[in-house]
């Protein structure tokens, strides 16, 4: 056996590239762990994965975002984060392998990643300044150094004195020479140390960033919502039909749809929260604390929230009993007038702690409807996912033009001079909710038995109210459905239709008429730019 053959036997050709790939992965792991720890100290949102993810969300074309929301629903953010991690893993492996040949180039590649992360963090609308670059920069520096060190173990020149690992089976005991080419023991020791240190660092970072949110969690647990000065009427007995498969009239908080751009749910400490109100035509700018809000006159209202990204028949609508301060009262106190009464500003821009901007027509907010700065949802403080400590809720407007969660700033301005987040991304400036109706049961492709089949669902036209719902079987005549009792014109309304179903395949369609007498249009449009229109239908086979 020649020397060459022996060496091939003890270290097959793929081993060092594989270990180089592993080095890349370990360096990447270390980078994330160090970045996480730094971010815990700087600002959790400044971590590279969250920053790159957020930047990606902001730059995603509306159509793709719409598609992602549609296909992954509330999991869209998880999918995005997994995608980012997958890209990181692939690049870490590639950089490790490159570094085996070109050690400096590999390390430089790692630094380049740090630059991308830092740039993403600095570009975030909620960026707190240059310190936001630190997690990515520090993480990348550490990782570049570690990659250089690990790859060094794999590249020890064959001429250097090499001590054979004592615990190696292929040691001198079997008579073979110490293996030239790389420092096996050195690599194992370094790799193990890097892995262990990264795990420890990562855990420390986690627990540190956890403690900041613990203050927010504690502040939420301490909230005692006062009894509202103006209670909502009890939900009328007949508003919730007892039909299997229909959406419950009130949507429990845990089931309420969630649509936002936040990769990490903001955890805001209510005790240090402030809301600033300022801008054009604000004669007395105001800064409110959470306690200030609770001490004001509170109203309780049932309002159905709807997302503009909801497809015809889609799930992004829900009804809750909200408690809050009437925004119109606060605005009036600041000296703001609606445009129709000579006010200077026609747009109110709400800004959240995570940099979202949402613009609503001042006229709508002050026309007598219950536009709220909401603090309570179905009897509890707002869940963090739904905007704790304070969000806006406005009957009749899609969420992206009204329902700012984690709100911290209100600026009065004009539609001409400022475009909010989604408007910059091709969505309409103004977006009142379109009349819609949905068949909740039977489900698409259900196989009900012939005879009496309950067709039922919900219909909404917030702030106008629903006056009629009709159902059509195949190409038959429109037949009036039975309407459940109305809670308010700001809530959806349940409906049902007792269908005498004959065997065979059938298409069920539904349409609603709002209180202005307008019938839900049959014309199909997509969600962009101002909400989907068209009629929901469901195909079933009757057995
Ligand atoms: N801060 C912030 N507020 C936000 C959003 C967001 O992305 N960030 N999304 C808006 C949209 S598009 C909708 S439909 C509603 C959804 O509110 P929900 O998640 O409580 O159902 O919140 C609105 N408020
Ligand atoms: Mo939305």
TrEMBL record:
Region described as Disordered: spans on this chain: 161-182
Q: Which GO terms describe its molecular function?
A: heme binding; molybdopterin cofactor binding; sulfite oxidase activity
| Keyword Zinc appears in the UniProt entry | no
Q: What is this protein called?
A: Sulfite oxidase
In what residue span(s) does the Oxidoreductase molybdopterin-binding domain sit? 264-420
Q: Which InterPro entries match?
A: Ig_E-set, OxRdtase_Mopterin-bd_dom, OxRdtase_Mopterin-bd_sf
Q: Does the keyword Signal apply?
A: no
**Entry keywords, A to Z:** Membrane, Transmembrane, Transmembrane helix
Offer one example of a GO biological process linked to this entry: sulfur compound metabolic process
Q: Species name for this entry? A: Streptomyces apricus
Residue intervals passing through the bilayer: 20-42, 78-98, 105-122, 134-151
The source's domain of life comes to: Bacteria
């Amino acid at each position: 056996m020649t020397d060459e053959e022996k060496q091939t036997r003890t270290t097959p050709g793929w081993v060092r590239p594989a270990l180089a790939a592993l080095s890349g992965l370990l360096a990447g792991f270390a980078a994330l762990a160090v970045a996480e720890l730094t971010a815990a100290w700087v600002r959790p949102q400044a971590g590279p994965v969250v920053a790159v993810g957020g930047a990606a969300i902001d730059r995603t074309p509306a159509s793709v975002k719409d598609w992602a929301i549609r296909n992954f629903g509330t999991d869209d953010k998880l999918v995005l984060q997994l995608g980012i991690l997958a890209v990181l893993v692939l690049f870490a492996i590639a950089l490790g392998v490159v570094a085996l040949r070109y050690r400096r180039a590999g390390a430089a590649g790692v630094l380049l990643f740090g630059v991308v992360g830092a740039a993403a963090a600095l570009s975030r609308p909620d960026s707190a300044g240059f310190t936001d670059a630190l997690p990515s920069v520090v993480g990348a520096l550490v990782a570049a150094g570690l990659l250089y060190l690990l790859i060094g173990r794999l590249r020890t020149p064959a001429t250097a004195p090499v001590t054979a690992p004592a615990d190696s089976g292929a040691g001198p005991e079997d008579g073979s020479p110490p293996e030239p080419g790389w420092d096996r023991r050195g690599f194992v020791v370094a790799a193990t140390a890097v892995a262990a240190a990264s795990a420890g660092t990562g855990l420390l970072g986690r627990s540190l960033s956890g403690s900041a949110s613990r203050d927010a969690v504690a502040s939420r647990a301490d909230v005692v919502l006062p009894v509202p000065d103006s209670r909502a009427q009890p939900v009328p007995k007949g508003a919730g039909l007892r039909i299997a498969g229909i959406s419950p009239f009130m949507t429990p908080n845990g089931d309420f749809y969630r649509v936002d751009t936040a990769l990490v749910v903001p955890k805001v400490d209510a005790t240090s929260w402030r809301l600033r109100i300022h801008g054009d035509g604000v004669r007395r700018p105001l800064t409110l604390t959470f306690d200030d809000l609770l001490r004001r006159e509170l109203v309780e209202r049932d309002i159905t929230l709807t997302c503009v990204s909801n497809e015809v028949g889609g799930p992004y609508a829900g009804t809750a009993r909200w408690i809050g301060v009437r925004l119109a009262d606060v605005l009036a106190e600041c000296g703001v007038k609606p445009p129709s009464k000579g006010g200077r500003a026609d747009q109110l821009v709400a800004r959240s702690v995570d940099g979202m901007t949402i613009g609503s027509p001042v006229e709508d907010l002050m026309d007598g409807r219950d536009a709220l700065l909401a603090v309570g949802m179905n009897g509890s403080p707002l869940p963090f996912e739904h905007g704790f400590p304070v969000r806006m809720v406005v009957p009749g407007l899609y969420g992206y033009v009204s329902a700012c969660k984690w709100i911290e700033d209100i600026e009065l301005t004009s539609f001409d001079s400022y475009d909010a987040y989604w408007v910059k991304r091709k969505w309409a400036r103004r977006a009142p909710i379109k009349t819609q109706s949905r068949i909740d049961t039977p489900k698409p492709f259900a196989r009900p038995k012939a005879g009496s089949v309950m067709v039922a669902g919900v219909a909404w036209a917030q702030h106008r109210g629903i006056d009629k719902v009709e159902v059509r079987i195949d190409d038959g005549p429109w037949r009036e459905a039975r309407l459940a009792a109305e809670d308010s014109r700001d809530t959806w309304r349940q409906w049902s239709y007792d269908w005498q179903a004959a065997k065979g395949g059938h298409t069920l369609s539904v349409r609603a008429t709002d209180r202005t007498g307008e019938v839900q249009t049959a014309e199909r449009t997509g969600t962009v730019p101002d909400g989907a229109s068209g009629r929901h239908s469901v195909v079933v086979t009757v057995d």
